[in-house]
Amino acid sequence: MYLKEVIQKTKKGPKRRYLQFVESVRTEKGPRQNILVNLGRIDDKEGCQRLEVLTQALLQISQTIHILDPKNDLEGASAKQLGMELIFRRLFQQIGIEKILEKVFLDINTDFDVKDALFNLILNRLSNPVSKHAITDWQEDEFQVNPYDLHQYYRAMDYLHDNLKTLESEIFTTMKSLSNARKSEFSIALFDTTSVSYYGNGDEEESFLNYGFSKNRRSDLKQIVVGVAMTKDGIPISHETYSGNTNDISAFKKIIEKFASKHNQNNVTFVGDRGLVSQKNVKYLQESHYKYILGYKMRTINKEDRAALLKKANLKTIKKNLEYRDLEYKGQRIIVYYNAERAEKDKLKRNEVLDRIKDKLKNASIKSIVSNKDYKKYLKIEGETPTLDQQKINADSVFDGVFVLTTNTSITPSKAVETYRSLWQCEAGFRTLKSELDLQPLFHRKERRIRSHVFICFLALIAKNLLLKKIRAVDKEASYRKTILDLKRLQAMSLKIHNSHVTIRSEIGKDAKLAFRALQMAFPKKVLTYTNEDLIVIR
To answer: Are β-strands 291-295 and 332-339 bridged in parallel, bridged antiparallel, or unpaired?
Structure first.
């Protein structure tokens, strides 16, 4: 039995609309409809009123139909994040990290899923980094995240530390295969270090947390030093964590030693900034038969040689505002390259310092001038009256816009310069680790927890960089920040409608849609869950 609308044509005037209750029956001549009740016309005011009275009467005697009263029957139960978990879980599946974690922790007998708890810790870094103590609150705002207790998260970090060597090797192999698949230059390993300050107030382990040169300008705090290696196109492949009193030169040698012991790669060209370089490190690389492209400390060039080596005449052009000279110095191949735009900036910066010195010479005390290292290098101090030293100023101008590389490769100067300039990938990676992923502030005091925390942030950096590459493959102008903001807006909203419960997703923004397309994922259904306990009629 069902309602049927009948439209009747008239010779004059508009069509008439009637409503009937009919049932379908099968006869010898085929299916037919029997009219059970004629409800009359419904296209005039009287017919509509009659139909509404009938509907109200039927609803009053029904046990399953309810007229919805929006003020009293609608209740918003909760809204939880949906998009971030969907995207990054699929990404971890696609790049193989989920399978690695599953393999490594397969035989661990615990009362909780270590792999899944670690995924939560990584996802938290990517979505809304909080302290480990606050992560149990964070998980309550995630729709599909399995909840764990705080002690279980700490146990997961300890299991992670116990299996770091195996995990690092597996991750390295996986990242190498991804890099090869993208036809990027895996043979190029970009290295850099940063310091991470310790903000805890407990009894820290003195052997690991130490005072040292702070790149955060917080020499008052103990710290650790973190080194990261990336491919030329920005895929993180390896990392190391050192005691806070490890300087860059020592860290670089340790990075090379550990890299060589962990990863049997002889075809790697190491690329590092001049702060990592010493003659001992260069010699070690040569003896280990590694190739390198390293920044060269220009002030280590003998003063009598500087004018000839760093002169800006007779240079060959790489591209606009970038020129070079390729030569040998003390048995090493060095490439001097000159950036005209940078030279102008260096000149302006020095002139600003000189203007400040001139003002200070008129009004400030001698001690305040001499104690400033930026001022002192331009001064001549004879007796109690410092003056500007034009010879020192001229000597400093030799370095304007000039950079020097040293390499034992046979690649072209333009290729060497291009490769060295790729170090911004590492610098960007450290900015991401410290700001977006909250590698710092560091509160863990135990070495194993610190190493686990750094590794979790390292895995989050891999996920971030690979998602960026995937969305850029779909749209070259794609913004990672906008994509993440849109994914955070994609929420699962739970509603109570009278005695029924329904969970629906919010609308998917265009930047979030880009992430789903990049990972070849179907959009989540509009209705995620539905408990149908009564039939709702909206009035």
So the answer is: unpaired
Which residues neighbour 100 within 8 Å (Cβ) at sequence distance 6 or greater?
167, 170, 171, 174
The span from the CA of 41 to the CA of 347, in Å, is 90
Instruction: Please indicate whether residue 435 or residue 80 has the higher confidence score (pLDDT).
Output: 80
The Cα–Cα gap between 394 and 217 comes to 30
What tens digit of pLDDT does each residue of 486-498 get? 999 999 988 877 7
Give the separation between CA 231 and CA 236, rounded to whole angstroms. Answer: 7
What's the pTM?
0.76
Token pair belonging to 484: 């993440």
Number of alpha carbons in the 13 Å side-chain half-sphere of residue 333: 13
Tokens of 339: 């950036």
pLDDT, averaged across the chain: 82
Model pLDDT for residues 79-91, shown as the tens digit of each residue: 889 999 999 999 9
Structure tokens at 522: 């179907």
Residue matched to tokens 């085929």 = 30
* DSSP 8-state secondary structure symbol assigned to residue 435: I
Segments in 209-334 forming alpha helices (H): 248-262, 279-287, 303-310
Buried b (16+ CB within 10 A) or exposed e, 14-38: eeeebbbebeeeeeeeeeeeeeeee
**Measured distance CA(168)–CA(106) in Å, rounded:** 17
Instruction: Extract the tokens encoding 482.
Output: 């906008």
Residue 235 burial (C-beta neighbours within 10 Å; 0-12, 13-18, 19+): buried
Exposure string of 103-126, with b = 16+ CB inside 10 Å and e = fewer, is ebbeeeeeeebbbbbbbbbbbbbb
CA–CA distance, 325 with 413 (Å, rounded to integer): 8
Backbone angles phi, psi at 484, to 5 degrees: -65, -40
> Phi and psi dihedrals of 425, rounded to 5?
-60, -45
